[in-house]
Amino acid sequence: MPGSFRTGIEHPIMMGSNRFGVESVESRGDGVRARGRNRGGRASVKLRDAGVRTTPSNLLKAGRRFRLGRCIGRWGPLYERTGCRPMTDKSFKFAVIAEPKDQKQWLGIARQAEDLGYTSLLSADVLTAASPFPALALAAGATTTLRFGTWVIAAPLRGPRMTAWDAHTLSMLSGGRFDLGIGTGRPFVLEDAAKLIGLEPGSAAQRLAQVEQTIDELRALDGEDYTPVLIAAGGPKARALAAAKADRITVASSAFATREEIAALVTQIREQAGDRGEDMEFVAPIYVIGDQAPPWVSRLLRTDMATLIERDSLGILRGSPQDMAEELRRRRETLGVCSFTINAVFAEQFAPVLDLLDTSRESPKRPLSAPVPSPRFTSDSSHNTGPR
């Protein structure tokens, strides 16, 4: 509708080394414009042509008309005032990450996750813990709707064909409930590989090539079936591969990565993906629910809870269930992230938030037998939180 609105954006939009201070948003017959100032004086950036959906991708292109480069900003208030579409409107998905200790504990976690309404159960790939593939196979047999996957397979630890073979087998026998998460391997995993099994991981380029080959092998084995693939993408080459071949992506970044940085990376990957971009899902880890961090969080992130709070880390979620739900909606709308991982130690504490959000779970194609009821258990593992 025609009119002029104050944007409410607290920070200027950053355009590379330039700044575009948005002062107002005007809706006219020919579209929606943001008005403000840049280095050259007053300027107007066209946000939405008549009848054209406004997305951060379109905003970025509009910004380039003024040679302002990459659009990064707090878009939430902008959406509210102009009717612009958020970065994603996909349903929320939440995964529980846990480390198998014994049969009772592991199957208890799987049943707990399914009962509470989580989307999936994830297991890490580290040489000092249980192997993820057989562990996830047991979890699949104890559940009916829960998805399960790796967070994430370190490509150098196995030959591409072997990883693809295991992934395809799990997907086939679970009724399509398996997701392959894969990456080049975290530094400590690669160090353990050299010490424990004498494996030289190879260069970063070689490890990334193994990720790509594994996906290609999996696609060949799947045939008409399809196993979803998540890539943990850190550098620009990994992000380019993810844009070309992944269904889901987790941006392997620092716990102190800013909202603007994550939003920019998500936008970049969607643009690189072309027509596939709109269908992609982005996944982010949440290390701490509440105000108390388990000891392993400090060891993993090499910082303390006070610093995480002070720097507004996206790795923590605090407040009441309503506060947490609102913050997650904000992250979905402004960052483009709709899927999150939660450590099993926080699974019950976080459960009330699930009830406040539009979570979605996919049913398996071929349902397995109903699980036997089990008491709930939790895990405090530090091996299962960070992707790469």
Labels describing this entry:
388 residues, alpha/beta, TIM Barrel, 2 domains, eight-stranded parallel beta barrel, 17 strands
Short summary:
The protein contains 13 helices and 17 strands.
Description:
The chain has 13 helices and 17 strands. The chain is of the alpha/beta class. The radius of gyration is 22 Å and the shape is globular.
What amount of the residues lies in strands? 15-25%
Order of helices and strands: EEEEEHEHEHEHEEHEHHEHEHEEHHEHEH
Number of domains: 2
Largest sheet: 8 strands, parallel, barrel
| Strand line-up of the largest beta sheet | 7-8-9-11-12-13-14-17
Q: Which CATH class of the largest domain applies here? A: Alpha Beta
Number of strands: 17
Which blocks of ≥5 consecutive residues have pLDDT under 50? Answer: 1-19, 48-85, 360-380
Radius of gyration: 22 Å
CATH architectural designation of the largest domain: Alpha-Beta Barrel
Helical percentage: 25-40%
Instruction: Count every helix, treating DSSP H or I runs of 4 or more residues as helices.
Output: 13
What value does the average pLDDT take? 80
Distance between the termini: 46 Å
Shape designation: globular
Q: What name is given to the CATH topology of the largest domain?
A: TIM Barrel
Structural class: alpha/beta
Helices and strands in order, then pairings?
Blueprint: E1 3-6, E2 13-15, E3 18-28, E4 31-38, E5 41-49, H1 56-64, E6 71-72, H2 76-82, E7 93-97, H3 103-116, E8 120-123, H4 132-141, E9 147-150, E10 153-154, H5 160-173, E11 178-183, H6 187-197, H7 204-222, E12 229-233, H8 236-245, E13 248-251, H9 259-273, E14 281-286, E15 288-289, H10 295-301, H11 305-310, E16 316-317, H12 321-335, E17 339-343, H13 347-356
Parallel strand pairs: 7-8, 7-17, 8-9, 9-11, 10-11, 11-12, 12-13, 13-14, 14-17, 15-16
Antiparallel strand pairs: 1-3, 2-3, 2-6, 3-4, 4-5
Helix pairs in contact: 3-4, 5-7, 8-9, 12-13
